[in-house]
Structure formats: structure tokens, C-alpha cells
Write a structure and sequence with these properties.
The protein is of the alpha/beta class. The chain has 2 domains: about 60 residues, DNA polymerase, domain 1 (Orthogonal Bundle); about 270 residues, TIM Barrel. About 30% of the residues lie in helices and about 20% in strands. The longest helix has 15 residues.
Length: about 350
């Protein structure tokens, strides 16, 4: 008998399944609440009758994560928490909980490792193991909420892995997380980051979701981008920006172009002017990211100086683009952009 992953079902699907087995419809809402709260065992669902719990044990799987390690930033006014979550098969992923003025945001992993091999990112240094299921993505949120006693109000799929390389599981997760009665985080509070899988962006565009698409650009041209990101050899920058222009037009949502500032590589005034010219006419903004150090990474990659970053931003703004500098959180615990790995950093 094939078990069904209980966390991947909507409350409506659960209700239909239970009624079909002769249980009252209202039991689905009770079960759903336990799932939303991150309960790991059917036996803990004490307001369900024993006969129903036995049926659930025989019919469904209940994948979960466990907190293997936990680090909290000691930087003043930071408050970032990084988790190493153990998975049921012995693998592990990292996830980061961040405290902003607007509420708690969580950076989730979508894969164990990554195939993309971006030269400035730690995640791909250990290779790729497997995709995460929707349940394992949801469980990261439940575990962090329970541990810190907070409610996560926004989610960014910017942790370990390339979300669009795990397309079916990620889109199912996005449907479940916005389900009324569940975690219930609306699409406008969700962000999905991609290194630029053009075919994945085309597929995502069909949903017309109101999430924020973040595209890791990191260079104004193919010459620099192919040095940093192997994916650029599959789709050149013109192909990528063309589909981004279409995506913004179809969804009406502004695209966030992520740009890691690397000293002497992509941070010159000429790069800024070329970038501005390429992005002209696209509904977007540019998110400048001070490069974060990566243990074992390239010695050629160093963070741009603060003054250079501000000049670069000014060039973009004079060209009519909106540009922001990403706030750096959790650097003392290797929890910042590009620093997540399969547990080696904890």
C-alpha cells in the first residue's frame, strides 16, 4: 500500500477522504489544525478518536523536520536565528528566521544542496542530493514558529537550492501555504528566487501569482555572468531579460533583480550604466547585495567597498531605476545570502 503525504493535502481533500471512510466532516478541520501547528505524530492529536488516529497511521505519512542545531546572532538589533533541520532520511538543510519591522520572515530551503554551481554561493559546493517535498518546506516554518513562539508572516524561497529546479513541489508548497485555515500567508508576502531558469519562469508565469519573483542577475553582460553563474551558458542574458519583461507584463508584478556586489568584477560605473541600459523598460527594481564571505570560496571574490556600492546605486538611480541595498543579517552565524550549506557552517 502506498502511503499519502498528509501535509500535501488541502483541508477540502482531507475532508473528502475522511467522509469517504465514514468519519465526520468536522474531523478534517481538527486534523488540519494539528498539521498547521507542525505536529509530527498522529498519536499526539489527542482530540481525535483512537479509531481515526489508527486509520491515519495506516493511510498517511507525516514528514517532519527536527532541530539538530540552532544559532542566534549576537549582533545588536539583529535577532536572526539559523536552524539546521534534520530530515527523516538523515539529510539536513539550513533555514533562517529574520526579524523585520513588518514581522518575522523565514528563508526556506527547497533542495538538499544545489546543482547550479554559482561561484560565490556556498550551497552548491557540496553538490546536490535531492529535492525537498512540500511537506518538508512547510515543516521548516512550523518548527521555527514553535521554537521561537512567533508567527512567520512572510517567506522567501532563497535558502538552499534552486526553487524552479524543483518546480512541481515548490508550486504545490505555494498553493498550500496560502490555503485559508492553514499557515495562510498570502502570495504578496512570498518571494521566489531563481538563478535564471528561463523555462521555469515561463511555467511560473502561467499561474499569474502575485508573489515576488527575484532573479539573480549579478552581472550586466554574458562575459561576466558566465564567469559567475554556469546557468548563463544555457540561457544568455538577453533571453533571460526577455522572459522577465514578459513575466512582469503578464503578472503586473515588479521583478527584483538581485545583484551581488563583487569588488573589481561587476561593480564599476561602466557595469552600472550597462545594467541600467539593459533593464530599461522592465517593471523592476535592483537589490544590491554586499557579497558575503564563503568558507572555501574563491579568493577572487571580495565584497565591494561601501563607497563603491553607493556610487553604483547612484548611477542606477540617475538612470531612472529603483535600487536598494539589502540589509545584511546574521553574518556572525553564516546565515546571510549565499552562506547556507548542508550543516557544515553550524
Amino acid at each position: 500500500m502506498a502511503y499519502i503525504d498528509c501535509r500535501t493535502l488541502t483541508v477540502t481533500q482531507l475532508r473528502d477522504d475522511l467522509v469517504r471512510e465514514g468519519f465526520p466532516a468536522y474531523r478534517a478541520e481538527q486534523l488540519w489544525k494539528w498539521l498547521k501547528d507542525g505536529t509530527s505524530h498522529f498519536t499526539d492529536m489527542t482530540n481525535l478518536p483512537a479509531v481515526l488516529r489508527e486509520h491515519l497511521e495506516k493511510t498517511y505519512l507525516l514528514p517532519s523536520v527536527t532541530i539538530e542545531k540552532r544559532l542566534e546572532s549576537e549582533i545588536k538589533d539583529d535577532g536572526t536565528v539559523k536552524y539546521l533541520f534534520g530530515l527523516d532520511d538523515g539529510n539536513a538543510v539550513e533555514s533562517v528566521l529574520m526579524n523585520y519591522r513588518h514581522g518575522w520572515s523565514q528563508c526556506l530551503s527547497t533542495q538538499v544542496g544545489c546543482k547550479m554551481g554559482c561561484t560565490f554561493c556556498a550551497t552548491g559546493m557540496d553538490g546536490f542530493t535531492r529535492n525537498l517535498t512540500p511537506s518538508e518546506m512547510l515543516a521548516q516554518i512550523a518548527a521555527a514558529q514553535t521554537d521561537c513562539g512567533v508567527r512567520v508572516s512572510s517567506v522567501v524561497l532563497m535558502g538552499m537550492g534552486e526553487p524552479l529546479d524543483n518546480f512541481d513541489n515548490v508550486t504545490r508548497f505555494l498553493q498550500l501555504i496560502s490555503e485559508p485555515g492553514g499557515i495562510n500567508i498570502g502570495m504578496r508576502h512570498l518571494s521566489l528566487s531563481t538563478c535564471g531558469l528561463v523555462d521555469g519562469i515561463v511555467r511560473l508565469m502561467e499561474y499569474k501569482w502575485q508573489l515576488t519573483l527575484s532573479v539573480s542577475l549579478h552581472a550586466p553582460n554574458d562575459e561576466i555572468r558566465t564567469q559567475l553563474m554556469p546557468v548563463a551558458r544555457r540561457w544568455n542574458i538577453d533571453e533571460l531579460l526577455s522572459v522577465c519583461r514578459d513575466y512582469a507584463a503578464v503578472t503586473g508584478r515588479r521583478i527584483s533583480f538581485e545583484y551581488a556586489m563583487i569588488d573589481g568584477v561587476n561593480d564599476s560605473d561602466a557595469c552600472a550604466r550597462e545594467l541600467a541600459a539593459r533593464l530599461r523598460g522592465i517593471l523592476c527594481h535592483v537589490n544590491l547585495i554586499p557579497l558575503n564571505p564563503v568558507d572555501g570560496g574563491s579568493d577572487l571574490h571580495r565584497r565591494s567597498k561601501a563607497a563603491r556600492l553607493q556610487v553604483f546605486r547612484s548611477v542606477l538611480e540617475r538612470s531612472g531605476l529603483t535600487a536598494t541595498v539589502r540589509r545584511t543579517l546574521g553574518t556572525d552565524i553564516n546565515a546571510s545570502c549565499g552562506q547556507l550549506r548542508q550543516g557544515q557552517t553550524l
